[in-house]
């Protein structure tokens, strides 16, 4: 029999009676119907499945449910606050930083995780953070522009009293 595992997903307490070795991605998509994180490679190498675990970007395809017990998990769907998109989401829309959109979840979650760590990351920090997020469509230039714009939008949001995820 599986142990009960408690965690918080997008601000809601959740309880699962599942095998603790179940990949977090499977729980998010199959049990909670959260489709922001995508199944890409299943090896934690493409970034399509990225989520935030306690505010830091993590690959949900290689993290077990048991590893996030008692922690806070945020998916793309959880970035929206009071109907307002996160500044990172806004920047990606404004810069049209997507073609097929499959990598978009990972890019946005990685940039949000970076901004949770550093208020003003420089270009090298952005590049380093996104280094292992794959985009097959080649929108890397627009993604970098969106990440740069996200810094400014995030700073404005923080100045207005909004808290980062």
Short structural description:
The protein has 165 residues and is of the alpha+beta class. It has five helices and five strands.
Describe what this molecule looks like in 3D.
There is one protein chain. The chain is globular, with a radius of gyration of 15 Å. Strand 1 (4-9) and strand 2 form a beta hairpin. The protein has helices spanning 24-31, 87-94, 104-117, 123-130, 140-159; strands at 4-9, 12-17, 50-53, 56-59, 72-74. Strands 2-1-5-3-4 form a 5-stranded mixed β-sheet, with helices on one face. The protein folds into 2 domains: 4-77, Ubiquitin-like (UB roll); 87-159, [2Fe-2S]-binding domain (DNA polymerase, domain 1, Orthogonal Bundle). 42% of the residues are buried. The chain is built from 5 helices and 5 strands. Helix 3 crosses helix 5 (140-159). The mean pLDDT is 93. The protein is an alpha+beta fold and 165 residues long.
